[in-house]
Structure formats: structure tokens, C-alpha cells
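User: Sequence in, structure out. Go.
Assistant: Echoing your sequence, followed by the C-alpha cells.
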Amino acid sequence: MAPAFDGYQSERPGDDVALAVASLVRALEKAQRTVEPHLDPGTLARLRALMVTLYDQRFRELAIHESARLGVAAGMRAVAAEYARAPFRGDRTENTSPDLDHAWRHERAVEIEDFCQLIASQSAKDPYPRPGAVVVAERMSAFLVLAACARRARALLVAGPATQDLVGAAIAKAARLPMIVDVEGLFAWTRPGDRLLVDGTTGVVRVNPPATAVARYRHRAPADALEDWD
């Protein structure tokens, strides 16, 4: 579950964001190289197209500028909002149909929103996802799953559905990262700091299980039963 960063203050937020972007790009690139051999050509092409966003100079300049002006948390929200509006503007990418162009802009906006969240957490010296944690998320974006792979997350719990055409789902599968999706009421019954037991084979999720339950799962299915702090 992503932490909140509104209370974080920095003397040089623009510099912090610049360093965070550079660090995250290196981590996501490393995870990308690991999963690429296991992706089908169509998914691989979409992932590479999304990764281009990470090197976009306009995005970096906007992220640094808005963070320096508003602070890290508000600045990254402003950047995410700017890209979220892009699919509804009248301009269109050359040689693409309106429907395809809108779908691509929407997918990119979702990825950038999650990347902005990753930047904010990195800038606040509280990286998300936390190393070795069970990741609780609203959706399974490609950048979030790559970050989870880079930080050796134990599993993914996702409130929304995952379909075969999602790049994030394909990355998780390629990385053999256990995932349970479409978990009803996920954010109603989990809180930061909860201990989670996730059985990726049966789809069982338990919150703050007793030690006896954890021991039983480890003995019965050590390869599939995972527990950690979110």
C-alpha cells in the first residue's frame, strides 16, 4: 500500500526529484532486462514504448519544475494530472486512429501517474514498494510491477482485475511474481503495517494471521505461501 508523502519537506525538492528519477530509471531498466526474454513480441513492443517515457526530457523538466515550485508531493500530483488530461485533448499522434491514439495516451497516463508515485516515495527516502514486501495496489501498471521486481517483492495484491492484455500482468507472470487480483474490498480491510499471508496457488489472503497459521502454511506449501509486512 503506497504511503502518503504530504508531510514530507525538502530543502531542495527539485534536486531530490532529479536524483529519484535517475535512480528509478536504473532500477526499472534492470528489471526490464530480466523479464524481456520471457515476453511475447506484442507485449515487449508495448513495454518498450512505455519505457520511452522514462527518458522524455519534457517529463523530467516538468517533474523537477513542479516539485521545486510546489514541493515533492504536490508537484508530482500536478505532473500526473497534466498527463491525465492528455487523452482528452484534440491533438493526435500522426498516422494513428483516434481510438488507438486515445487508448495509448490513457495507458501512458496511467503509467506516468504510478511513476510519479514512485518518484515521490523515492524522493522522501521511503521507497515504494518496500524491499521484500507484499505489494497492495489499486492496479497492476507496468512501472509498478517492474519496481516490485526490482525490489524483490514477495507478491502482488491488486484491487482491480487483470486481463491478459495488461503489460503489468505479463511482467508479473514473466518474473514469476505471485499475484492475486480483483480482491474485493482490499483497501477496506488492509492497512499499512498489516502482516499479510498470501497463498498465490489457492488465492487465499489473510490479514494479521496468527503464528500457528503462518507455520502451517509454511509447512504445507513453502513455495507458495508468502508472508511479509506491507
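User: And one key feature?
Assistant: Confidence is low (pLDDT under 50) at residues 92-96, 222-230.
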